[in-house]
Amino acid sequence: MTAMHPETISVERAPVQRSRGHAANVLRRLLRNPVAMIAATVILLLILMAVFAPWLMPQDPFATSMLKRLKPIGTEGLPLGSDELGRDLLSRLILGARLSLFMGIAPVIIAFVIGSAIGIFAGYVGGWANSLIMRCIDVLYAFPSVLLAIALSGALGAGIVNALVSLTVVFIPQIARIAESVTTGVRRSDYVDAARASGASALLIVRRHVLGNVIGPIFVYATGLISVSMILASGLSFLGLGVKPPEPEWGLMLNTLRTAIYTQPWVAALPGVMIFITSVSFNMLADGLRSAMEVKQ
Amino acid sequence: MSDPMIRLRELYVEFNPPGKRIQAVNGVDLTVDRGEVVALIGESGSGKSVTLRAMMRLHPEKTTRYSGALEVAGQDVLGMGGGALSQLRGKRVAMIFQEPLLALDPVYTLGEQIVEAIRRHEPLGRAEARARALQLFERVRIPSPERRLDAYPHEMSGGMRQRAMIALALACNPQVLLADEPTTALDATVQIQILLLLRDLQRELGLSIVFVTHDIGAAAEVADRMAVMYAGRIVEEGPASELLTRPRHPYTRALLGSRDEGALRKGRRLDTIGGAPPDLARLPAGCAFAARCAFADDACRAAVPERRELGARHAAACRRLDELPALLAVRADEALPS
Amino acid sequence: MNPTPQVLPKDRRDLGGPRQPLLIVRDLKKHFPLKKTGFGLRRERLAVRAVDGVSFEILKGETLGVVGESGCGKSTTARLLMQLTAQDSGELVFDGQALGAGLSLREYRRQTQMVFQDSYSSLNPRMTIEDSIAFGPTVHGVSRREALARAHDLLARVGLEPARFAGRYPHELSGGQRQRVNIARALALEPRLIILDESVSALDKSVEAQVLNLLQDLKQDFGLTYLFISHDLGVVRYVSDRVLVMYLGEVVEVGEAEALFERPLHPYTEALLRSMPSTDPLKRTEQAPLAGDPPNPIDPPSGCRFHTRCAYAQPVCAERAPRFHEALPGHAVACLRHEPESGYDRRLIPVQEVAHV
After folding, report:
1. Distance from CA of B310 to the nearest CA of C (A)
2. Domain residues for B248?
3. B77: helix, strand or coil
4. Quick check: B192 and C285 CB within 8 A?
């Protein structure tokens, strides 16, 4: 590849008009979607709450008091009441956002990276390697996710790290399957054939042509898994397999307040309300993202 | 002359998807007589398929606006209620499409589909309807029709599927057959068979056929008359042989020029029409072809040209029809090698 | 397009001189198995015999047209030539060098490029036009800066103003414009052979004519050789120097375009030509030259594969496969009628009606 053909015309270099890229278009459409924007605002507030928890908490979330057990909402000095050990529930909910959000998001991010890698590899390579990988993935996928998470956590023992590992393992097959099917579709397209015909290596084709076209759909799917992850993580804590007391985590708080369901039902339901708001917000954001990406151009 | 089978007067079809206004058909006048085959010819976006589908009011009701007059067999299609419309569709007017695999139901056998279509419109028993279906298969010359009635669409070859779709369209003895690019997806040797079949059916059953195609050759094989469409208007129409041998409108001339035996002589450059058809969301004020026409002047760009009768049912919509021969002669002189 | 090889600009990559065919295709075979057998104990028997022993040559500087109906294997042949699908057997020799022996696949792919039918799906929707065109050269070690500059030059060359189009995405262009981009991308690697697989078929007639003129100019300017695959016989006749006819995975006839169109030797070619609509309402086709559809390539007929639809077929045609041979100078055919001592009785009068169902 040396000089150009002599016949090729050299042209005056005028400033090139550029179109908005795909990501910018998706963002613009997302910003115009009111539901998605409300959800995004709620999520942003929750994250800010988790980050600045030490400054936002009105009281020490670990300070117990036998005298202030199970106070109702609106009690003097305890705006959202107190739990069965007399700890300020507002402070515990604020601090609990840290672990709860972490347990919702972290497993999905890790599974997104690993699952996408597995799925894209299987989808691009195809053939028997694909069959082998995907059948292994199917074995894991065949278990109901709740059952698998409980079984894994049970086998590994309680603890944040073990809960994280088991949730990640639950999500990898789901993400890998999506990644594989999207990649298989892209791989069959003419533009990938054209790239192969230009002599590019498989790795380069995946990087330049496949990744950009598959990452969007996988990402949308993964965003939808965050709410599932939060609920599963809460469930694990609820069963005593995730976060250990006295750390505040919404699922765990729901578990310990369970006994108070008849005496202070509103207080006992509050951690559940937080889980609900957060997971619904993530779901709505995922829906908004999906419709922003799906618009036919 | 008896009443025409189809009569369009100043037909406009406009699509209004959210935030857009697409003027797909912009004042079409067309009549199709009983037992006549009329071909609508044009490139993609010319409005030929939209016009055809409008004849059965197939466009989504919510986002489509029709205006003008549209009569089929003496009935006003645009003012029809739901019941009358479903009586019209299938019974009086039937349609065949480019891709039979998409038009036929994959989970029923062809026989079942035809029997159902017959019984939807006529009080016939299952056995009688099946006997009629068998006749239809024989009529469209499907070999071993008895066996093929029990076949599913995917089990047949492309040509046989197209025949089966024609049989389905003929199930209730329609008077009008609307054909939307019915041979475009077929191979050459199969295409000619289907064209001949349509011609025979038209003769045997006295059908009126409106045949939409971008392929002038296919149209020439079946059509009595042709109408050339551009940007939602008919720019020229006339008897097939007249239009093919003596085209008058600059667009028709260019379109035919590209297919002319002489134009395809080796080593010669093809005569092309520069540019592209106009955006139907931003239609120009005057003649839609003016931007690509070598003979257009300011007056052409100012007002939509009137349709002009040229005798023998031949008409064209161009302001400079009379000057064209002279202008063409000048151009031919200039093109001579010096 | 102009068939005279001597006016070609001298290509420094030329190895064997003008007489050496640019590409020799020898006995190419590709069968697609229908049923996957899990453990290899049972042999796969059902297969679509898409390309079944195809041999031909593409001469330097010519345009070789390929015609045939769906299922005849012309698109699979294109993919095999581009090595997008691996052949079961057979050999490609590019300018005297066998692919895999004297010539690496990477080098071969730089000299051979392809333009696909679907102008939209052959461009990455997430890449700008300039990036799509510049991708190939960067693969072969050209710097991004230089590759982009070349992309802009090529855009201008195919009639798209670089300033207006380089930064756009495929969905913002019309079909004709996109196909120009695809042509520019194929040219970016400075190939010698371009495979045009139904490249103008999806375009409107007026746009098709523009692109055909462009292809003709580019061929002159860059000294290209084309393999032009199309189902449109009129266009193939116009662009091709020689034409190759395929039927059910086999080559049945090859010859100079004019000779083949004026005096076709194979009955299938003859039927194909007579199937072209007449464009004159006064001289309409009265009877379809062939009845029925092409047979299934899974189970092709015995002997000559065309004998089931052939108006000239005799019993011997069902038994004996014709040998592909040069019946007239420069005009080869696979038909027992033209094969000496084939057992075909040429005195019998053909029964035209036989083929009609």
Report:
1. 20
2. 237-335
3. coil
4. yes
Cβ–Cβ under 8 Å, residues B52 and B28: no
CA B73 to CA A208: how far, in whole Å?
59
Cβ contacts of residue C45 below 8 Å, gap of 6+?
Answer: none
Domains of chain C: 8-35+44-123+189-247 (3.40.50.300), 270-355 (no CATH)
> What contacts B210, CB < 8 A, 6 or more positions away?
B6, B32, B38, B39, B40, B52, B55, B176, B177, B178, B179
Residue B329 to residue B261: CA distance in whole angstroms: 20
Tokens for A226, please give them.
């965050």
pLDDT of residue A61: 76
pLDDT recorded at residue B52: 93
Structural contact between residues C28 and C50, judged by C-beta atoms closer than 8 angstroms: no
> B23 in helix, strand or coil?
strand
Domains of chain A from N-terminus onward: 30-46+89-294 (1.10.3720.10)
Element (H, E) at C225: strand C225-229
C219 burial type by CB count under 10 A (0-12 exposed, 13-18 middle, 19+ buried): buried
Question: For residue A271, which of A287, A260, A282 has the smallest C-alpha distance?
Answer: A260
In-domain check, residue B46: no
Q: How far C340 CA lies from chain B's nearest CA (Å)?
A: 29
Q: What is the pLDDT of residue C5?
A: 47
Cα distance from N-terminal residue to C-terminal residue, chain A: 36
Q: Is A195 in Cβ contact with C169 (below 8 Å)?
A: no
d(CA B117, CA B129): 9
Interface partners of chain A (CB pairs < 8 Å, 3 or more) are: C
Interface of C to B at Cβ within 8 Å reads: 1-2, 69-70, 174, 176, 204-210, 212-213, 216, 231, 233-235, 237-238, 257-258, 271-272, 275-282, 284-285, 287-294, 357
Amino acid at C175: G
Nearest-5° angle of CA A7, CA A9, CA A14?
170
Most confident of A5-9, B309-313, C277-281: B309-313
Distance, CA of C115 to CA of C229 (rounded, Å): 10
- The answer, yes or no, to whether residue C50 has pLDDT greater than 60, is yes
Residues B148 and B156 sit within 8 Å (Cβ to Cβ): yes
CA of C30 to nearest chain B CA: how many angstroms apart?
22
Residue-level pLDDT, tens digit, chain A, 297 residues: 444 444 444 444 567 888 888 888 888 888 888 999 999 999 999 999 989 988 888 778 787 777 777 777 777 777 777 777 778 888 888 988 888 899 889 999 999 999 999 999 999 998 888 999 999 999 988 888 888 888 888 888 888 888 899 999 999 999 999 999 999 999 989 999 999 999 899 999 999 999 989 998 999 899 889 888 988 888 888 888 878 777 888 888 888 888 888 887 887 888 889 989 998 999 999 999 888 887 554
Place of tokens 């292809």: C215
Contact A80, A270 (CB under 8 A): yes
Angle (nearest 5°) at CA C332 between C326 and C337: 85
Please tell me the distance from the alpha carbon of residue A250 to that of residue A283, in angstroms, as a whole number: 18
Residue written as token pair 């669409």: B153
Q: H/E element holding A141?
A: helix A127-142
Are C254 and C56 in contact, with CB atoms under 8 Å apart? yes
Evaluate whether C157 touches C188 at the Cβ level (below 8 Å): no
**Does residue B53 fall inside a structural domain?**
no
Count structural domains, chain B.
Answer: 1
- Give chain C's length: 357
At residue B147's C-alpha, the angle toward residues B146 and B151, to 5°, is 120
